[in-house]
Amino acid sequence: MKVFVSSDMEGTAGVVDWSQCRPAEPEYAYYRGLLQEEVNAAIEGAMAGGATEFLVNDSHSKMANLRPDTLAGRARYLSGRHKPLYMMQGLDASFDGVFFVSYHGSMAGAPATLSHTYNPQAISEVLLNGVTAGESGINALVALGHGVPVVLITGDDTTAAEIEPFCPGIHSAVVKSSVSRFAADSLHPTTARELIHQAAEEAVRALPRATPPRIALPATLTVRFRNPDLAEMATWIDGIERADAVSVRTTDEDPIRLYRRFVTAVLLTRGIAE
């Protein structure tokens, strides 16, 4: 039984500030350790549920945050930037389930600690078929394309709620409650890891009844940028059209092709945003 793990960092219990999850900052070393333990808790819980093989796609910042020799379950480790499928690189139809570990919410709606969608300097909001979608909902397009269910998400309470429209019934481990974008009430790290372990085990045991993400096709992504220049730049990509002064939309019956087009827009607009 194979499990694909996409790991971010902002959803880790105790993380509430950019300085805690940026490699150049002095606090980063401590908090990357907390992330590692949460990833391992998910893997160990999955092993208790019967999973035997793991691929971890490091999906935060420069995507080289974990220590390969201390990954549980002898997991394969996919790290580094410039991946064609970004946070979902490595997933294929051979996997039985997908875990999203230490994910965060979008900037729209209820408060979510360190909320953003891919690039907070460029993107204000993304809608998937008219529903606000964070990175979890957008990434679920790739899982849908391969017919693999997304069965676990860990992070704050807003993050768990945001993925529900796209992956109804998903198991969640809520390790903190967001107070604002830069404050949260977090579980003790040991308690957080115990909760993740339990949720991962339950998710794997329930895999025989799990189904791929529930996203109607053809699907439409609507992206609202922070200014008109960014929206105009996104339309340089075939298949993306202007929706209004600061928004674009793109539609496709192939969810993976749609996702790749979105990622291309993210990478293209990042240059001018920064």
Automatic annotation (TrEMBL):
Xref: InterPro entries: DppA_N, Peptidase_M55, Peptidase_M55_sf
Species the sequence originates in: Streptomyces noursei (Streptomyces albulus)
Stored CDD domains: DAP_dppA_1
Protein name per Swiss-Prot or TrEMBL: Peptidase M55
Binding positions for Zn(2+) 1 per the UniProt entry: 8, 10
Keyword Nucleotidyltransferase assigned: no
Record-listed Zn(2+) 2 binding positions: 8, 60, 104, 135
A matching Pfam family: Peptidase_M55
SUPFAM superfamilies the record matches: Dipeptide transport protein
